[in-house]
Amino acid sequence: MAGSTFGEIFRITTWGESHGKGIGVVVDGCPAGLPLTEKDIQAFLDRRKPGQSLFTTQRREDDTAQIWSGVFEGKTTGCPISILIPNTDQRSRDYGAIMDIYRPGHADYTYDAKYGIRDYRGGGRSSGRETIGRVAAGAIASKLLKELGVTVRAYAQAIGPAKADPSRIDFSTMYDNPFYMPDPVAAQEAAEAAKAAIGSKDSMGGVVRCTVDGLPAGIGDPCFDKLDGLLAKAVMSIGAVKAVEIGDGIRVSETRGSQNNDSYTTVDGVPVKKTNHGGGI
Amino acid sequence: MAGSTFGEIFRITTWGESHGKGIGVVVDGCPAGLPLTEKDIQAFLDRRKPGQSLFTTQRREDDTAQIWSGVFEGKTTGCPISILIPNTDQRSRDYGAIMDIYRPGHADYTYDAKYGIRDYRGGGRSSGRETIGRVAAGAIASKLLKELGVTVRAYAQAIGPAKADPSRIDFSTMYDNPFYMPDPVAAQEAAEAAKAAIGSKDSMGGVVRCTVDGLPAGIGDPCFDKLDGLLAKAVMSIGAVKAVEIGDGIRVSETRGSQNNDSYTTVDGVPVKKTNHGGGI
Amino acid sequence: MAGSTFGEIFRITTWGESHGKGIGVVVDGCPAGLPLTEKDIQAFLDRRKPGQSLFTTQRREDDTAQIWSGVFEGKTTGCPISILIPNTDQRSRDYGAIMDIYRPGHADYTYDAKYGIRDYRGGGRSSGRETIGRVAAGAIASKLLKELGVTVRAYAQAIGPAKADPSRIDFSTMYDNPFYMPDPVAAQEAAEAAKAAIGSKDSMGGVVRCTVDGLPAGIGDPCFDKLDGLLAKAVMSIGAVKAVEIGDGIRVSETRGSQNNDSYTTVDGVPVKKTNHGGGI
Amino acid sequence: MAGSTFGEIFRITTWGESHGKGIGVVVDGCPAGLPLTEKDIQAFLDRRKPGQSLFTTQRREDDTAQIWSGVFEGKTTGCPISILIPNTDQRSRDYGAIMDIYRPGHADYTYDAKYGIRDYRGGGRSSGRETIGRVAAGAIASKLLKELGVTVRAYAQAIGPAKADPSRIDFSTMYDNPFYMPDPVAAQEAAEAAKAAIGSKDSMGGVVRCTVDGLPAGIGDPCFDKLDGLLAKAVMSIGAVKAVEIGDGIRVSETRGSQNNDSYTTVDGVPVKKTNHGGGI
Question: Please, where are the H alpha helices in C9-106?
Fold first, then answer.
């Protein structure tokens, strides 16, 4: 059954495998009149592309975005925006070795069980490269939201044992390290821990924190399409993600309502929450 | 709002404009294991491609199908199949002349009213080239259905005043004329009528008849997703289509139930309809 | 598979069988703040309810609408509106006789083939009573559209051989006859033809014409969710409907583009079509 | 926009407010032939109904399930199953006091901001009573899954400071305490903690653990409709839920791949995971 589409009004459909001809996304429902160029998308792809540091896959890919439709004279037309990112380094690996084994922590077995056939080269559709289509679509969403006064920021809060310290967070330093960690001290710890893990052919978990600013109250629809439900689905569908927390998240289970509930006050006549244990949702 | 996706289980998403870089479709939900090559798709595109006779647009396009994902070692994998057809002849026309006018029988005004911006080159998204994505997806659907014993056949039943005569229909002659009309006499009449219409810079309407064989009873779901409802939506969403009929169609309005209702008999113990005024649905 | 839901933003889900406990609909996505009472819905149900003339089923049903949710202090809240219409006359018929036969022109065989089980009482889910949920939802949609300046009018254009004559149409007379035919002369002919058909235990076809006024240009979304595609699906999913036409409909197949295409002019600077062969879509 | 529908093939649509006439759900897409009675649903509703212990709302509701459609002669027909649960105790509370205040930890403010109108009685649509529709639908899903050899079990793993100890878990005791905690010792601790919290007009968080047995590999669809994504959406859309974890969940962020990845072995020729840090997904 079809599962590669997300969203109703602004709807994205992704496609592509790790070692196929390319990766792409169709963004349908983007409003007309938004200025959009390949550079807008490239900026986001450049941040995710592999081979830029010791700490990611060593595959070399430029991941160059091509817009094939939906943009005319520099602006979106309201019609579907098709973005294509060719794979260029896909022939250089020998994946024969993994053809007959199921790698732990990967979807190899699941795909075989489900489909009876599997593009074993680099994980095929279940590769981390699948997120390229999401990132490209996200670049458009981000630009659109910015026009509406909404900004989205995601960063590495923890990489293995290294945790960003709230007192040290400085977003101007975030892109100075390959982890996009806005705490230079923690980023240095992360680099050392990562080197050690790589040295022992191991990997580490981490925590991504995402904040959204400027969103008006009332986005999302009860009951199943609540904003936190939609976000949880989107995030949990990314490979390797095993937990989603909103606000205080799992810690809520150990606190009392009096500690956790965000009570209201008014500032200049507008209702405002005094605290934000609920993540603002 | 997103409107370029059709279907739930076998789901297609089309994109592309008449004079953009290309046209394409993402087919999601195709079962794994179906043998599929670009040739399978090309055979269908070749039947619709322009510039093959006097009677279609004179634009020259090879309309070459490229499969970018979802097929591995000659078989579908269950993952989205992305098909791309580059536009090659899109620079040769001067569309400046239609930039400022609304053509009758086209969607120019509608797009302007809806989006406030319009890719005026050749109709943009509302061009007849939009159907390329449908045809490419249809090639896959057709191959899949064939494996299930279901065949679909569409042909021109009427072109302007020329009507295929049931007594003369011979499907072996269908592709001998540019109208895909399985009656050589009617096809000749159609050619003459079309030449005359073109001579007076005019065009003609027509009727496409589509039959499906081998489909088991019970496909479709009550009440809104009835098969005839889904078919009507699909067909009516094609540019220029203004009527959809099932079985006797509009003639049902003038007949009595006793004439129109298909009564049952049994053949070898299986219920069979004696007549087919209802189109089998 | 689920098929009883229609629409994305204003979404309706219908349920109920001819001889079950009742019929109903859930309307989700109706904007908040619309004044709504059971009387608004009842007015529409009263127009469709059976047993009001010789010409419909003789079953007696009051078809009383109950609103169970989504309305607070006389206004919609934005939450799903659940409407329930109990069946009251469902025990009075003996349907044992049709338990073992497949009626022509009904879905009896289809349901058996699809589900292997069938609520044979009065057609079960495939009964004409299924439209009660649509009518109740339509009453809400109609009230909402009216606030937006959009009006929808449907009437009988033809009943068997009786056809409303455009020169005689007078909508003030429409509800004076049981066919909702706005031409008193044709309505009288229809009554006679219907009596004759009933006398010979037969039935007749007809044509319903629906016009929408006040709708702005640009509603619907290319390509699959075009307005005419969505309308065609909705209409074709009603039991017994076998054809859908937009504008000139099937007659377009026999006319030339020069006759059929609606050219534009401007009235007070606004683009206006000179003719309306395309049904305004 | 409509947000009260969940699922594509087995699709549920819920409706109803805390103090409206009732709560309900329409289950569409349930296969035909499943034996189903109101008792099947009642058994699940009885486990969630209020007023059974000190620890829940003191509102008295029988929460009696009525099946209004989709079941014929004790079996599902494949048609939508409409379930209605009348509210009976809704008139006995005075909610005037909360008409003008926004309660912390509730959706009062959000609804006002979104809709400009709010059914303030008991939270309206955002009340915990909204889950009644989910539970009723879940009763059907549960019965269906059982026929397929799939069982689903959810229980309280922690209530405030009381945590079920894996070494003491005994599911035969689970329904002996009002928390549905399968560890009698922890359940006793939970009761004491809850009494203390209630004594200070406070509330406590908790953790629900859900396990599914018998599910074949390959359920869900890449990429957005992965099983963990769908589950996360469903769970996170329940009021008060702020975190969803699969397998080791948030603890994965602090472990290495070598600890966390589940490697394979074969048992009787079938691939089996040696560990289950990934939650089996």
Answer: 38-48
